[in-house]
C-alpha cells in the first residue's frame, strides 16, 4: 500500500516538474521562478493552459498568425510601392540627364521625342494617381479642381509615340540602371574602377549580398559600440566614485599629517623667534654700550665722579641737618599744644616784622630819591 502511494506521489511530483519546465520557457517576459510555481499550483495550471493558446509574446496563436499574414501583406505592398517609386525616380533621372545633355550638345529628334513622350506620360499618370489615390474614395465626392482621369488621359501623347517609347524604354532603362549600379560599385570599391566592364558586371551581381553583409556588420558594430558606450559610462561613474573616495582619503591623510607636523613646526618657529628676540636684545645692549662709550670719555667720567662726590657730601650734610631739625621738632612736640599756639603767634609776628621792614626800606629808598 505504501509502495503504491509512493509511486503515485513520485508521478505527481514528476508531472508538476514537467509542467513547470513547460510554463517557464513559454512566458520569458514574466519573472516567474520555479519557487513561485511550486508555491502557487493553481497559478501554474493557469499558465500551463494559457501556454497552449498564446505565444511567448502574449498574443493568441490565431491572432499572431493573422498578424504575421498582415505583416507579410504589408511588406509586399511596401515592396511594390518602393519598386514603383524607384522606377519613377529612375525615369525622372533619365529625363534630367537628357536636359543636361541638351545644354552641352544637340540631341537627335528621336531622342527628344522619346524623352518628351516619357515626361508627359509620367506627369499624366502622376496626376491621375493624385486624383484617385485609392479605390475607397466615394464617387459622390467632388474631384480636385473639377478634373477626372478621363480628362487627363486626353493630355497623353499620341498612341504611336507611346508605343515607340515603350519599345525603346526597357533598353534605355537597363543601361541607366546598369550605369547607376556601376557607379555604386565604383563608389563602394574604388579599386575596382580600373577593371573591365565584364568583371565589374560579375562583381555587381554579388554587390547586394556584400551590402547586406556590411549592413549587418555595421549594425553589429553599432550594437557593440552602444554596449561599449554603456560599459564605458558605468566604468566612468565607478572610476569617478572611486576617485572621490581616494580624494577624500587623501584629504584626511593630509589633514592628519598637517595637524601632526603643525605642533613641531610651531615649536621650531617659537624657538626661532626666541633666538631672534635674544639676538635683537643683545644687539640693543651692544648699541647702548657703544653709545655710552662714544658719549662718556675719561674726562667726562672724572668730572661726573667729582660731581657725584660733591653731591654725596651735600646729601650727607642735608641729611644731618634734617636729623637735627627732626630732633628739634620732636622736642617742640613734647611741649604740647600751648607751645604750638606760641609758635604760630611767633610766626605771625615775624611775618609782620618782615613786611614792616620791607615797607621801611622802600620808604627810605623813595625819600633818598
Note down, in words, how this protein is organized.
The chain has 369 residues and is an all-alpha fold. Among the domains are: 14-58, no CATH class; 64-134 and 147-205, no CATH class; 336-369. It is 85% helix and 0% strand. It has helices at residues 2-26, 34-39, 41-51, 61-104, 109-131, 149-153, 159-188, 197-205, 207-295, 298-335, 337-368. α1 (2-26) packs across α3 (41-51). The longest helix has 89 residues, at 207-295. It is elongated, with a radius of gyration of 65 Å.
Can you give keywords for this protein?
mainly alpha; 369 residues; 11 helices; disordered N terminus; elongated; 85% helix
Instruction: Tell me the strand percentage band.
Output: under 5%
How far is the N terminus from the C terminus?
179 Å
The mean pLDDT is 77
Instruction: Tell me the major beta sheet.
Output: none
User: What series of H and E elements makes up the topology?
Assistant: HHHHHHHHHHH
Query: Mind telling me the C-alpha Rg?
Result: 65 Å
Structural class: mainly alpha
In helices, the fraction of residues equals over 70%
What form results from the Cα inertia axes? elongated
- Show unreliable segments: 1-15
- Tally of alpha and pi helices: 11
Count of strand segments: 0
